[in-house]
Amino acid sequence: MIVFPNAKINLGLQVKAKRPDGFHDLETVFFPINCTDMLEAVRAEEFAFTTSGLPIDAASEHNLCIKAWNILAKDFALSPVKMHLHKQIPMGAGLGGGSSDGAFTLLLLNKLFKLDLSEELLINYALQLGSDCPFFIQNKPVFATGRGEIMEPVEIPSMRGKKILLVNPALHISTREAFEQLELKGGNSDLREVVKEPVERWRDGGMEGSRDGGMENDFEAGASARYPEIAQIREELYKQGALYAAMTGTGSTVFGIFKEVPAGWEKSFPTQYRCIATTMA
Predict the structure, then answer these.
(1) What is the pLDDT of residues 216-272, one digit of tens each?
(2) Are 17 and 79 in contact (CB under 8 A)?
C-alpha cells in the first residue's frame, strides 16, 4: 500500500502568546500543496523502516512514521510491517514534510489494518505526534488556532488556478531556533478575512483599510535577520512577477504565488537551492 504525503504552506502565521504548557497559541491558514514524499507499507514478519531520497538527519526513534506506528500499536494488535519512505520534501523547511509523513502513516495503517478510525480519533492520534500533524488528516485549506489543532475550513477563491513556486535555500531551521528568534507581536489580523481578498492585495496589508500588517509570518523577520538569503529570495520572486511571496512556517522555504510560472525562474537562484513549481494538492 502506497500513499503520497504532501507538503503545506502557511498563508500568514501569527503567534499570539506562550501557553502554560510550553506551547504557543497561534493563528494561521494551512494550505496543502502538490509536493510529496512517498510512503509504502507491507505486512512483514518483523517491523522494519527504511528510507531513500533526501537524507534524514534525525535518529530513527524521532521519526514520526515510527512514532505513528508505536502510537497505534499501543492500542491495537498490529502485525509487523515493513515501511519505506522516499523523502522529497526538504526538512527544516517550513513545509511540514515530517508532520505529513507521520499523519499519512496513521491514515495508511488505519486502512491497511481496517481499524475504521474516525477522523476525530485520527486527529487526536496525530496531535500526539506534533502540532502540524492534525492538519494533514483533513488536508484541505483551514484556519487553524490553538497549537494548530483547532481547525475550521476556509475558502480562498483567489488561489484557484494559481501556480506556487518554492525556493528552499538549503538551510535547516529547527523549531527551537525559530522560537528563540521570535518577538511576540500579538498581531490582530483576521486571516480568515484576509485570504478572501485578491492575492495581490495580501502584500500591502490584506483588507482595504486594514490597520495592521495583514498577511504576515511572525517568524520571517527573525529568520531573515539571521539568514539574509530568505529576504533575497522573497524579493527575487517579486521581481519574477509574484503576486505574493513569503516564508512558510518557521522557515526556511519561501513561496511565491503566480498567475503563470515565469520561464526559467529557477535559474535566478544558486544551483544548491531546491526549486519546485507546484499547485494546490
Answers:
(1) 899 998 999 999 999 999 999 999 999 999 999 988 999 999 999 999 999 999 999
(2) no
Q: Where are the alpha helices (H) located in the chain, listed in sequence order?
A: 64-75, 97-112, 119-129, 133-138, 175-180, 191-194, 199-202, 220-226, 228-239
Phi-psi group of 214: left, alpha or beta (phi > 0 → left; psi -120 to 50 → alpha; rest → beta): left
**Region label for 205, one of left (φ > 0), alpha (ψ between -120 and 50) or beta (otherwise):** left
Distance CA 56, CA 82 (A): 18
Active-site residue identified among 8, 37, 87, 101? 8
Does residue 8 have an active-site annotation?
yes
C-alpha cell at 147: 497549537
Q: Which of 67, 132, 239, 259 is catalytic?
A: 132
